[in-house]
Design a protein that fits this description.
Elements: H1 2-13, H2 27-38, H3 42-55, H4 59-71, H5 77-90, H6 95-107, H7 112-123, H8 129-138, H9 148-162, H10 169-181, H11 185-195, H12 202-215, H13 219-232, H14 237-249, H15 253-266, H16 271-283, H17 287-297, H18 305-316, H19 320-333, H20 341-356, H21 361-380, H22 388-396, H23 403-407, H24 413-424, H25 429-441, H26 445-458, H27 464-475, H28 479-492, H29 502-516, H30 521-534, H31 539-548
Helix pairs in contact: 1-12, 1-14, 1-16, 2-3, 3-4, 4-5, 4-6, 5-6, 6-7, 6-8, 7-8, 8-9, 9-10, 10-11, 11-12, 12-13, 12-14, 13-14, 14-15, 15-16, 16-17, 17-18, 18-19, 19-20, 20-21, 20-22, 22-28, 24-25, 25-26, 26-27, 27-28, 28-29, 29-30, 30-31
């Protein structure tokens, strides 16, 4: 899921930094908590700050706890607000907790909070570098609701004031974050470079630099920086999250799965961290692991995004009515700013799925209209969360192909044995190939489609898997999906491999031409001509060419 992936990369970049507060007797404990946040160990950080509050219930300690809820993968605004309010009850002048409450408003989309944060800094008379830092941090936390110009102004003042002693590395981290928001990567990199010699954990800086290169689509430099982070500290969890995003970008799904395993190992069991992992598994098209993790923590998280993730999973299983209920729950509970074009696209696909079995003609028409309109929103936004046309084609041809639909089809001992091998190792492409072929031999077309799709996920540049998907869809009677798969095969065959794939290419062009002859005559003529260029003796193409060029 693209929007989910962008969000995860952003969280890596804007993660909390290591902070040292010399004015607290329990400074080491404070640093332990902030270190935990920076390492995506949010449960550990919450325990740390809760213990601090039990020993010393100060306004500052309540701020640290509240800020942890803001910094986790999905902010928990309710718990953050509760903690900030407790801090203010102890000290009504606590500028930190006032900034915390304003940050909650900003995270929810209230842009008026920017002026509120500015007033808090003014009221503090800009005497405390930490207050200015936290104000700037709040102004860079949220991707869609921020004020990088004001953040840069506050940070420069904080750096100037702190320079009398020593500028903390996290001041420069956050300055880099602000420049990222302004899309000035050069200045962002300069800020991160200044943080590097000051940072106690350089893996944190290298990870930020890596995600900055990713944002600039400089993938070689991104990989080099992430590798440096892991070489510096092999237990630094966010580096593996960044590496997973990199591998997902390159469709290295098996590698991304291992990255997520490592991330899970070095992060902690905080439910919101696990929710992040479930989203990343879904982005990696590892639906089984995504569902397993979401099932485990579903009742432990309050964030409505859990309903969206559940809706995607239910849609993938063809459970359209249940998927609609989950999406309705997400849309009704989430802030409006969190509903993305991809979410509307998914609502459109769900509507198309419901229309398939709707008996009432008027309702069916209304659902199909909704489907086209909402999918158009996702496509218009150039969203690539799902292959929208292919998804519509799959629904039109009979609905989603799931493991359940494959399991009720024809089987035999060979299929069952290969299924066990694949279950034991989802990255075993040799067994997947044999299983897909066995499904085809048994005429279990749903099983063949599903297995060839898994092959394409693991080997996205291996063209034959798309051809086989097209053939299986065609045999299953889903010509719309077959056309898309054949076209993907045609576009994936490398120039150097065209001669070896001459016959299959000729058939693919012919099949698309034949399936378009009644709906797109110009395309049918073009494709049948290409088929004959590859094989002038192909009699079916010769016959079709004669029919459509009378």
């Amino acid at each position: 899921m693209k929007d989910i992936m962008i969000m995860n990369v952003k969280k890596i970049a804007f993660g909390a930094a290591v902070v040292f507060f010399a004015n607290f007797a329990s400074a080491q404990t404070v640093q332990d908590g902030i270190n935990s946040i920076d390492s995506d160990k949010f449960a550990q950080a919450k325990t740390n700050f809760t213990d601090m509050i039990a020993k010393a219930p100060t306004a500052e300690n309540y701020f640290y706890l509240g800020n942890t809820f803001l910094r986790q993968g999905e902010p928990d605004f309710a718990k953050a607000t509760e903690s900030f309010n407790k801090g203010l009850a102890l000290d009504t002048k606590s500028y930190l907790n006032k900034i915390g409450l304003a940050a909650v408003k900003l995270g929810k989309g209230d842009k008026g909070a920017i002026a509120e944060i500015q007033k808090i800094v003014t009221d503090s008379r800009e005497k405390d570098a930490e207050v200015m830092f936290r104000a700037a941090e709040a102004l860079t936390l949220f991707e869609k609701n921020n004020s990088p110009d004001l953040a840069i102004q506050f940070l420069n003042k904080a750096i100037e004031r702190a320079a009398k002693k020593e500028v903390p590395a996290h001041y420069y981290y956050t300055l880099g974050d602000a420049y990222r928001l302004k899309k000035i990567p050069g200045d962002a990199m300069s800020a991160y470079d200044k943080a590097l010699p000051l940072a106690k954990n350089k893996a944190s800086v290298y990870t930020r630099i890596g995600t900055l290169w990713m944002a600039a689509q400089q993938w070689k430099q991104a990989k080099e920086s992430i590798d440096k982070a892991i070489a510096t500290d092999a237990t630094y969890a966010p580096a593996y999250k960044a590496l997973a995003a990199y591998d997902i970008k390159y469709q290295e799904n098996a590698k991304a799965t291992q990255d997520l395993i490592n991330y899970t190992k070095y992060a902690d069991e905080d439910p919101y961290t696990q929710l992040e992992i479930a989203k990343l598994y879904f982005t990696n098209e590892d639906y089984a692991n995504s569902k397993m993790i979401l099932d485990k923590i579903f009742d432990k998280v309050d964030d409505p995004i859990k309903f969206k993730l559940r809706a995607y999973q239910l849609y993938a299983d063809g459970k359209y009515a249940e998927a609609k209920q989950s999406m309705d729950s997400f849309v009704s509970q989430a802030e409006k700013s969190r509903v993305q074009p991809a979410d509307q696209g998914l609502q459109g696909l769900i509507a198309a799925g419901l229309a398939k079995d709707e008996k009432d003609a008027a309702k069916k028409t209304a659902l199909m209209t909704e489907a086209q309109q909402k999918v158009a929103i996702a496509k218009g936004a150039k969203d690539e969360t799902l292959k929208w046309d292919m998804e519509l084609a799959k629904i039109a041809g009979g609905g989603a192909v799931s493991q359940g639909s494959a399991d009720i089809g024809p089987t035999n001992p060979t299929i069952e044995g290969l299924k066990q091998k694949v279950a034991a190792n989802a990255q075993d492409t040799d067994s997947l190939f044999k299983l897909a072929t066995a499904y085809q031999d048994a005429k279990n077309w749903n099983g063949a489609i599903l297995t060839w799709q898994k092959m394409s996920t693991l080997l996205p540049d291996w063209a034959p898997a798309y051809y086989s998907q097209g053939y299986s869809y065609q045999q299953a009677g889903n010509n719309d999906a077959a056309k898309i798969a054949y076209e993907k095969f045609i576009s994936t065959v490398k120039p150097a491999d065209k001669e070896a794939n001459k016959q299959t290419l000729a058939y693919a062009y012919f099949a698309v031409a034949y399936m378009n002859k009644d709906s797109d005559l110009a395309k049918a003529k073009d494709y049948v001509a290409k088929s004959l260029q590859l094989d002038p003796t192909y009699q079916d193409a010769v016959k079709l060419n004669g029919e459509i060029n009378k």
